[in-house]
């Protein structure tokens, strides 16, 4: 069953926008602009309207973002300042609770430079660099992604495993929940792009908090990492063999995990979601749960031209074959996707396909993009659904 | 409202229900009840595998404690009696599915109720009738669920007769003997299902209290405690007649309070709500009012951090106990004349 996305009412803002009040002051001097900017969060969020600003004596300024179906290059307008560099501005509308990553593009003569917004302190990091973050009205960083004082932390320990299937040494990290006991038995979660989930999605902190608040069951989590990601993740038989026949048995031998499909989950984002899906597909009835975030589930209905570049070729081959003959790969699937990312279309399209196999599917959308913070913000929903804690039964 | 230390032995032992003890104030409660220096039986089965980690509890109680170790005893039973363990596992699977299906029904009913309340009323009295009907449907679902859960338990005990198995008989005897030498019982929170399972398996109800029946022997008037009981969290819930699960801030779905099973029934007309401020949206008085209507004539007892409520000898709420009123607002219990 898909969850209806609870889109909140758009926020309201009464009166003139701050930038329009400023524009009304003529002549506009440097001191006034400095006062205007001092202590003000930029972009300025006033109800659904968000005003981007840039200060500098340049030839052109634009905002670059990746919201699908929107102009991704948004030019700023120039506001002259009598005794200082001009102020650049543009106002766009964004629905409540949106989170958008962007950069500022500046042109001086023929030279174009793109960088993070110097007026904005919110920055998101990813393996390919950092971006500025616009948090629209109503967006709040969930408290459970931040370290909490009274939360008992779990432990991360390295796991090196020589893989015959992949012909390389694999490097993973294993999370053991706080108060781990060898006499107990735990569900097993295997996370693709594990180090990135820890670094960019605060997943260790999230696990600590969700387990502490008993939103989530105490779980052993393997943060696995790819070698050549673009080869291993898009439906690669040796990768699936490694997970199912090397990693899981090694964990079962070393740690007290429950040896049942319903207590196992594969998880990943983007290509990591494809790796999770294809590994479960190649090993029927081994993994009872999948947690797939912004899966790169690109497919074609006609021909094979998908426009995603060669990296997507094996993905499209796999997804087209799967769509032609869908079968249940897991009993329960939790799927998330941002509505601002191009992958929203294939993700939405795959939900009924997965449901048609008899799997129980929970699908959640968010007003966010293809980013680690989007995936971070959905962790509570997904993890507490996949391996729910005994919250409603526990009363301290 | 702490009870006056009782000097009259005929006054009967009482149940004292507390709020969560994250910042323990048990020591002062024990002092207020005149139990300082006493020997306490503790039941920490709700803590499951951490049952024995009771150092803080022991210190708060002054050091003279006997932990009945029910969870650990239960694990031993499962180990030496695989047939009973398998039957218990199956029972829990059936109960789990039953709970899930009941919850689906409840959610539909709650959704219908929400729509009725949101409907602009052309004739308010007609709307009120429809709302009452919806609440009545939920009350019936609650009652039926409790009765079906009861049937599952009864069938388990009738089929597998744990009460006749030597290791259970011995364990019950050992628990009874350990309890006999104590002055009071302390039952903290934890997993309410596990706690109740352990209490039932080792038949704690008759060890804690004797039933007082009406003259014709048909009606249970009250439970006469064998010693005072102090409880909080899941412990408080387990002592009451019906255990209501509640959590509004669930990550999974919007909370609909649901009945779990009958409790030990040592109280009268009490539904315990531990940590209500953390677990319920108390500001939503419409929903809280519906909750109060669902459990009436029992009263939802609010057990927040500073709460200390000593029930009367009949196990009823005293005047002044913090409860949810019929209008859904937190209020204090007022006893009726003659109550």
TrEMBL record, chain A:
Gene Ontology annotations of biological process type: carbohydrate metabolic process
Organism field: Ornithinimicrobium tianjinense
Protein name: Enterochelin esterase
Superkingdom in the source lineage: Bacteria
SUPFAM superfamilies with a match to the protein in the record: alpha/beta-Hydrolases, E set domains
InterPro entries with a match to the protein in the record: AB_hydrolase_fold, Esterase-like, Ig-like_fold, Ig_E-set, Mycobacterial_A85_antigen
From TrEMBL, chain B:
Disordered: region residues: 318-339
Official protein name in the record: Uncharacterized protein
Organism name: Ornithinimicrobium tianjinense
Lineage, broadest ranks: Bacteria, Bacillati, Actinomycetota, Actinomycetes, Micrococcales
């Amino acid at each position: 069953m898909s969850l209806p996305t609870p889109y909140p009412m758009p926020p309201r803002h009464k009166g003139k926008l701050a930038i329009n009040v400023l524009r009304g002051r003529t002549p506009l001097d440097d001191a006034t602009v400095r006062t205007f900017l001092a202590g003000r969060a930029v972009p300025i969020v006033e109800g659904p309207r968000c005003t981007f600003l840039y200060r500098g004596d340049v030839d052109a300024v634009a905002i670059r973002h990746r919201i699908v179906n929107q102009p991704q290059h948004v030019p700023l307008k120039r506001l002259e300042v009598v005794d200082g560099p001009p102020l650049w501005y543009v106002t766009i509308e964004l629905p409540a609770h949106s989170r958008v990553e962007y950069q500022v593009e500046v042109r001086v003569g023929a030279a174009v430079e793109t960088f993070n917004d110097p007026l904005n302190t919110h920055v998101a990091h990813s393996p390919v660099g950092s971006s500025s973050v616009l948090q629209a009205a109503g967006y709040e960083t969930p408290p459970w992604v931040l370290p909490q004082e009274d939360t008992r932390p779990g432990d991360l320990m390295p796991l090196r495993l020589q893989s015959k299937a992949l012909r390389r040494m694999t490097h993973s990290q294993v999370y053991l929940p706080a108060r781990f006991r060898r006499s107990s038995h735990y569900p097993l979660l295997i996370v693709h792009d594990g180090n990135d989930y820890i670094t960019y999605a605060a997943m260790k902190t999230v696990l600590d908090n969700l387990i502490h608040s008993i939103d989530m069951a105490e779980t052993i989590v393997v943060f696995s990492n790819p070698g050549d990601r673009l080869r291993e993740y898009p439906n690669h038989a040796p990768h699936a063999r490694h997970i199912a026949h090397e990693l899981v048995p090694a964990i079962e031998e070393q740690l007290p995990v429950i040896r049942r499909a319903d207590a196992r989950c594969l998880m990943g984002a983007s290509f990591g979601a494809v790796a999770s899906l294809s590994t479960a597909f190649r090993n029927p009835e081994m993994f009872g749960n999948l947690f797939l975030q912004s899966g790169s589930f690109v497919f074609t209905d006609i021909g094979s031209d998908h426009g995603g570049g060669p990296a997507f070729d094996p993905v499209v081959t796999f997804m087209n074959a799967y769509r032609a003959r869908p079968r249940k790969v897991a009993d329960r699937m939790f799927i998330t996707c941002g509505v601002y990312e191009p992958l929203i279309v294939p993700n939405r399209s795959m939900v009924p396909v997965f449901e048609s196999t008899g799997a129980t599917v929970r699908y959640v959308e968010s007003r966010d993009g293809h980013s680690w913070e989007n995936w971070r913000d959905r962790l509570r929903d997904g993890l507490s659904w996949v391996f729910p804690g005994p919250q409603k039964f526990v009363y301290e | 409202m702490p009870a006056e230390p009782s000097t009259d032995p005929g006054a009967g032992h009482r149940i004292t229900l507390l709020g969560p003890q994250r910042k323990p104030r048990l020591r002062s409660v024990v002092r207020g009840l005149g139990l300082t220096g006493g020997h306490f039986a503790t039941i920490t089965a709700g803590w499951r595998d951490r049952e024995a980690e009771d150092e803080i509890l022991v210190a708060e109680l002054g050091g003279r404690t006997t932990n009945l170790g029910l969870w650990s005893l239960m694990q031993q039973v499962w180990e030496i009696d695989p047939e009973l363990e398998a039957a218990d596992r199956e029972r829990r699977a059936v109960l789990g599915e039953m709970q899930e299906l009941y919850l689906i029904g409840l959610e539909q009913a709650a959704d219908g109720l929400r729509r009725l309340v949101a409907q602009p009323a052309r004739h308010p009295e007609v709307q009120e009738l429809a709302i009452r009907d919806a609440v009545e449907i939920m009350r019936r679902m609650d009652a039926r669920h409790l009765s079906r859960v009861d049937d599952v338990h009864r069938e388990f005990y009738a089929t597998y007769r744990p009460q006749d198995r030597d290791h259970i008989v011995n364990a019950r005897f050992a628990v009874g003997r350990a309890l006999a030498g104590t002055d009071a019982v302390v039952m903290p929170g934890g997993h309410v299902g596990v706690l109740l399972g352990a209490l039932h398996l080792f038949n704690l109800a008759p060890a804690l209290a004797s039933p007082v029946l009406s003259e014709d022997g048909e009606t249970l008037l009250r439970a006469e405690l064998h010693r005072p009981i102090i409880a909080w969290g899941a412990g408080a819930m387990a002592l009451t007649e019906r255990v209501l699960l509640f959590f509004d801030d669930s990550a999974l779905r919007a909370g609909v309070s649901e009945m779990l099973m009958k409790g030990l029934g040592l109280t009268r007309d009490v539904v315990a709500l531990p940590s209500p401020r953390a677990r319920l949206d108390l500001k939503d008085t419409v929903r809280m009012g519906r909750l109060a209507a669902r459990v009436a004539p029992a009263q939802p007892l609010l057990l927040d951090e500073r709460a200390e409520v000593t029930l009367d000898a009949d196990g009823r709420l005293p005047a002044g106990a913090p409860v949810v009123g019929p209008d859904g607002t937190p209020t204090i219990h007022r006893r009726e004349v003659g109550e």
